[in-house]
Amino acid sequence: MDIKKLIDTLHPLERKVLPILGRVLDFNKIVEETGLKDVEVMRALQWLQNKGVVKLKDELKEVVELGKNGKRYIEQGLPEKRFLKEIEEEPKDADSIKEKASLSKEEFGVCMGVLKKNSAILIDKKDGKLIFTITPTGKKFLERTDEEDFLKKLPIELKTLKETMVFEGLRKRKDILKVQLLKIKKIEITELGKKAVKEKITDKEVVDRLTADMLKTGEWKGKKFRRYDVEINVPEIYGGKKQHYRRFLEEVREKFLELGFTECDGPIVESDFYNMDALYMPQFHSARDIHDAYYIKEPKYCKLDEKLVKKVKEAHENGYRTGSKGWGYKFDIKKTHMNLLRTHDTSISARTLSSKKLKIPGKYFQISRCFRPDVIDASHNVDFNQVGGFVIGEDLNLKHLFGLLAMFAKEFAGTDEYKIVPGYFPFTEPSAELIAKHPDLGWIELAGSGMFRPEMVKPLVGKVVPVVAWGVGIDRLAMFKLGLKDIRQLFSHDLKFLRNVKVV
Amino acid sequence: MPTISFSLEDLQNLVGEKISIDKLKELLSYGKAELENYDKDTDEVTVSCDDTNLPYLWSVEGIARLLKGLLGKEKGIPKLEVFKESKHELIVGKSVSKVRPYIAAFIARGKKVDDNSIKMMIDLQEKFCESYGRRRKKVAIGVYNYKKIKFPVTYKATDPESIKFIPLDFKKEMTQAEILEEHPKGKEYAWILEGSDKYPILVDNKDNVLSFPPIINSVYSGKIEIGDEDLFFEATGEDLDAVLLAANIFAQAFYERGFNIYAVDVKYEDKKITSPYMFNESIKISGSQIKNLTGLELKEEEIKRLLGRMRFDYKAGKVMIPDYRRDIMHPVDIIEDVAIAYGYDNIKPEPVTVYTPGQPMEINKFIDKAREILMGLSYQEIMSPILSNKSILYENMNIKDMENRRFSEPSEAKASSGFGTIEIKEPMSETYSVVRTWLLPILMEVLSKNKHTDYPQKIFEEGIVTVRKGDDVKDYHRVALLSAHKDADFTEAKQALDLLMRLLGFKYEVVEVEHDSFIPGRVGRVVVDGMKVGFIGEIAPSVLKNWDLDVSVVGFEVNLTELFEKIK
Predict the structure, then answer these.
(1) How far apart are CA B187 and CA B92, in angstroms?
(2) What is the ipTM metric for this complex?
(3) What domains are defined for chain A?
């Protein structure tokens, strides 16, 4: 950048700092000379670095500072010195030294050790008391000591051997010293900087901020505005935003609403009844093991519409006059009342079918959290969302189910290339699976579907009506759309990720 | 979902024609089965069967039978010839009626056992007993060397200490009680016999023990080896239909492998049932039923042809069902097979034309408004698992289980009504062992996981919490918000709450309360029309310490379900 232009872009803080960089490169001295605050100098230096005028380097330094006791000793003198002062004139016993020099028991002990080691005192016993006498070496101690010099110099970095030795001695004593690792900015001026400091820099001639006053008075006219570096990188900010997975589910929801589906929901704690029995899944079915569902401790059982339970019981036992022979086993009424966390969203379809609000014809859907015991890894979660629903209408048949699946392939995988193959679900007959060619994932199982069995529909609705039902495997599509490799990221608690994940 | 494997060559021999892997893949879908793998080096095909009600498909013979129908090599109900010899009797003692009442049996002779038939026996037996047989409780199967057995055979129940024999895989004689305690199979399946004082046993006319159903065969006759020629098969269980079905499925498979099948007369105290058993089941279907369910208009000849492909016989509106199938309950089961045989690819999709206006749940509209307001305040939305644990919800928040109810539940709710947390009976891990009852702790966890991320951290979550009230369980939509930075204070939280309530149109008060998760004197209950709908405050330092946080945190949580009910 041309030097003149560069000068024009300088902020008032930079204008104060830059001129002295020709001779001063020590941070504290810059603070002193400019009269600015530490943070202001720091900011100015960072900006100057961005402009290529200086280079800042972080250096880690071990700095020795005064501790709690160290500060006190600077005012009161070191304990050993106070000790010696007391016996400068005449020998004294321990108690009187302690009291007069106001030394704690601990400090007294340390003093005794230090002074004896340095042969500064002599200790005698008299009448069961310890008597302390100062030695000629001790008298020298009363003059300035290395320790005092050292403390007065703090904070410093250890440089000389002498400093290090004194430091080692004092460090062992309680709270005299504190050692801190400090980040110190080392400032280097660049070639560009060397040219820049030679320019005339004042903070008078340019307008920094446009103020209301300037606008009123027209003072801005004819003045130069400080040039900004518009290319500069600014610090990141984070706005409030929708959680990524929730946004995806909302879009799915919008889609179904647009397609004329009515939204439904149901309880998280479900009964065996709605979760399985009402779906004509036999109570001995292999998917009904305790390990395939989260049963709950309390309340163990729930209240149900017993008239409806009776109808479903009949369907299981003898087909409930649907033309079916039923599963032909003894239905367990108590078991059907057991509570569990719903394992799939079809429980909600069963509730909707038995609800007074059901309209025929009608289209219904739900997006719901479901739970299944599993070992959690990149592709399995115990807590996941399902999207499903049904269309009910007197004239519906398998062709309409296929029509719906074709639409799903288009709406959810964005493709016209799909296959419908036979499938198996305990509650649908016929059953079909939708396999769609996703533009990026290739052939994926997208939806399971079928016509609800008459043994399921008649007890719930009161009559046999064709019901086309489906469930879309939504998590996999969500992961793809959001560019995630791990299913756990759908519920991520990583704020950096949440703040930065793209809005798609 | 049972998975079976077999060699492609064996399948091709049974079908009588070469089949490419692609073709196999396509044909398997007709039986709701999927090709999982084909290993070129070993020629091994692995297939998973989706439909747990079709055990007759769980062997290479079953797959071959399906394929022969689809490829037009055979049609209609497969052939099964059964010979009878009067000496083949099996006598059932009354003593088994309480423990394991039913047995079915047959004999397969005239062909040497080879690798393929051994594999079929082991695989089909295992899949059948584990899945369809409910881990041997409903059905267990045994196969024996026929030549060692002197008929009639007796099936009875005896005192667990009274008979000794050498079980397979062991060298010493053991009583039945000892087998349940010491033999691996005994330990695995002992649960089936729990509560019985007599155990089932199968012995021949010379009192040789054949087996201890449903646990283990004896060494005497219960080990089948390659080269053995004549086999005795039996299935025991608590369901007569299921044991007969087992005998039928195995007899069909042995027959198709080239064995001659001989019937066994099973004599109960009050009846005689010969197996393999001819169920002779049939079901009526009509063209109009097919049209109603599938939209396909098919002529009777076409229906007959399609059913023949799927191995049914058809005559004048009646569908005859093969004796190895007991899964047909309703005409829809047959009609699905008609549609599958017709080919899903050939069924033309039709759009659903019924017009219905889409209706969102009203509460979701309300929830979205609340979320929009908080996002406008620059709060990042969070979405978490609903499952949580008590240390997050309570211990780390310095409160006892559900003490927070006082600040979140309707005022009419009494402490005595047994508020509680929904706990999972057998959690896989402690991390996910209860259903969350409030949201603030979840957000605290988020903060604690992000100590090294830029502050201020402003987050909120809207979601379902679930609480138990006596014998009832209720879900609530709630929203919680937290702001964490060095200057976060009560005012900031209250400004956010105030904005939310104002824009949603609620008049509210904040009444000072005590709550151990918050700093005393800096926590309030949010009240609307006299109803407690939430709380607001500065998180207590002891709680911050529990979460290893060294920054001030403020926030609130309100019950959106209850607020919504006020304006509904």
Answers:
(1) 26
(2) 0.89
(3) 3-53+190-225 (no CATH), 66-170 (1.10.10.10), 246-500 (3.30.930.10)
